[in-house]
Amino acid sequence: MWEKISLIRFADDFVILHENLAVVQRCQQIIAEWLSGIGLEFKPSKTRISHTLNKHEDSVGFDFLGFTIRQLPVGKCHSGKNRGGTLLGFKTIITPSKAKLNAHTQKVGQLIERHKSVPQSDLITHLNPIIRGWTNYYACVVSKRIFNKADSILFSQLKAWAEHRHPNKSSQWCCQKYWQTIGFDNWVFTSINRGVRLLKHRETPIVRHTKVQGSRSPFDGDWVYWSSRMGKHPEAPTRVATLLKRQKGKCAHCGLFFLDSDLMEIDHKIPRSRMRFGLLRQPSITSRTLPRCQNGC
After folding, report:
1. Beta bridge partners of 290
2. Which tens digit of pLDDT belongs to each residue from 232-241?
3. In angstroms, rounded to a whole number, what is the distance separating the alpha carbons of residues 259 and 241?
């Protein structure tokens, strides 16, 4: 029974997972005794026992590193499977925690409050790095609904900012002045004169995290695999590693995965021999180079 315990730790935060409640409670006692021996104790606000699927102590799931982890009952078409392929009847969902969403919106609101008198372009310059960093952190989990909610709150904050700058104007006039339509995108908070626009949370693409293969190690010498995953490797040129990540480790010509023994060359996506008239002068074509494998392509 004790062999099935899962311990996930990051710095001084950790989670213990087990299917038996008695085992988890006993682990809590053992850790509390060990901490008391070195003069430490659990923080009550961060320590609790919860179940990821069923309600326990008026809560379901738990928060860890800014994420909320819980399981939801689903049908057989969406159910997860164990290692034997048996349907579990539930699906694990990871979303940004409500506390982190509130902290983010408060931070954005405080920044807008401190910049009531600055031009619109300067406010956008201060907001974009915060939005980009927060959304990139949560871009690997189920975050689309949370991103839409953050955009809705941000719109209300910016609308109050605009109405404060023009107390004698109507709300419609303020919206027409600071929000524009660009292409098919409506309600874009932008300064056309300065050429800057505010990023939207929902514009960040959701890309699921790919687990590292169990037999892989950063020190195994397979620079092709780690370059395709991370976009950098000490043994690979920066340009090659970046292009490998962009192509997801596949050859642009044949579509097969690269091997460590393959010979690679950086070539134009459109060969120079096929370029006619003014195409060679277009930087979007001449600067987009992609690696190709030379074996069998």
Report:
1. 267
2. 878 777 887 8
3. 14
Q: Looking at the predicted structure, is the pLDDT value of residue 286 above 80?
A: no
| Alpha helices in the chain, H assignment, sequence order | 21-37, 98-114, 120-137, 144-165, 171-178, 223-230, 238-246, 283-286
Closest listed residue to residue 198, CA positions, set 142, 141, 172, 159: 159
Query: How many angstroms separate the CA atoms of 70 and 51, rounded?
Result: 8
Q: Which of 110-124, 195-209, 275-289 has the lowest mean pLDDT?
A: 275-289
Residue 30's nearest CA partner among 5, 55, 10, 63 is 5
Write out the DSSP string of 199-250: PPGGGS---PPPPPPTT--TTSS-HHHHHHHHS--TTS-HHHHHHHHHTTTB
Both tokens of 49, joined, read 């026992």
- Cross-strand partners of 63: 68
Half-sphere exposure of 70 (CA within 13 A, CB side): 18
Nearest of 30, 35, 61 to residue 48 by alpha carbon: 61
- Distance of alpha carbon 212 from alpha carbon 221, whole angstroms: 15
Which residues on neighbouring strands pair with residue 93, listed in sequence order? 70
